[in-house]
Amino acid sequence: MTKKTKILAISSPGGHWIQLNKICNKLEKQFDVVYATPGAQYKSSAKKGRRKIYAITDVSADSKLNLIPVIFQLLYILIRERPNTIISTGTAPGVMAVLLCKFLPIKTIWVDSIANVNVLSRSGRMVKKHANLVVTQWEALSDNKTIVYRGSVL
Amino acid sequence: MIFVAVGTQFPFDRLIENMDQWAADYDQEVIAQIANGEYVPQNMQWQRFLDAEKYNKNIKEAAVFVSHAGMGNIISARNHNTPIIVMNRQFSLGEHRNDHQADGVKWMAELSGVYAAPTQAELYTLLGDTNALQVSSPKENKKLDQLVGFLDDYIRTGKID
Q1: Do A117 and B148 touch (CB under 8 A)?
Q2: ipTM exceeding the 0.90 mark
Q3: Of A49, A21, A48, A22, which is closest to residue A35 (Cα–Cα)?
Q4: Cα–Cα distance between B107 and B119 in angstroms, integer?
Q5: Which residue of B154, B156, B161 is the best one to mutate when testing the A interface, meaning the one whose CB has the most A CBs within 10 A?
Q6: What is the pLDDT of residues A21-78, one digit of tens each?
Q7: Which residues in chain B are contacts of A111 at CB distance < 8 A?
Q8: Domain B2-135 sits in CATH 3.30.360.10
Q9: Which residues numbered 32-61 in B keep a CB inside 8 Å of some CB on A?
Q10: Hey, where are the domains in chain A?
Q11: How many Cβ atoms from other residues are within 10 Å of residue B24's Cβ?
């Protein structure tokens, strides 16, 4: 049996995590998916015991000092898991992961949150030039080149 | 039956009070999950927290689900084919730490089967004609498969079709 392609899925808690789960519940059928998210709330969404979830420090782009531990946590996870691809629905931890993977042979996918209808999210704009694939969940926001639309979680 | 829920993290007294006043005037069964709210309902059945099984059963059996603007509840309503009315917490009323839920209802109202009611007046208008509320369209339910299929291809091939 060949080894399944490994994906690291990463997001902030709340709606971002819900969207990540909607996508990855299906991707898990084809790929080996591991997760990273700030710890407090993941227990309720995760199917207990079956999933590998790394807890990371809760950060927002406003708390810049917290970004430093997150960089080391992400590096640790990337080295340990050696994913082929990372996927994020936002926000700050996803941005950090995309930027780190720019220097590594890891594909990066950004799925912008469905809550951003009129303009790409702030974190989405930060990774726009750096992620290999940037997906919006609203057709009107797609330019079909750098930002693509191919459906949505809802 | 109308099921009302405000999530477990924060209270949302405005929504609970609006629904309690509505329940006083209409002969309809209303069940509410009120979290740590200070307002104690007089005209509807209520509990602070419900276990997941009871919670989902209520969503399934409800003619309408009235909720805070939470993505999890929208997904649950769609899974159970129940129309959902969402009211957003407002920063200006001290109901939230920031106003991110205000943008929240804008996109939610774009989805079929989801109705936004930022104010009491809009909420009562929607409740006034619940037969007109629709569930989500099957077409929208395919959007997730479309997205995941695309991502799946991209992960394998590294190419955008």
Answers
A1: no
A2: yes
A3: A21
A4: 17
A5: B154
A6: 999 999 999 999 999 998 655 554 455 567 899 999 988 656 778 889 999 999 999 9
A7: 147, 151
A8: no
A9: none
A10: 6-149
A11: 12
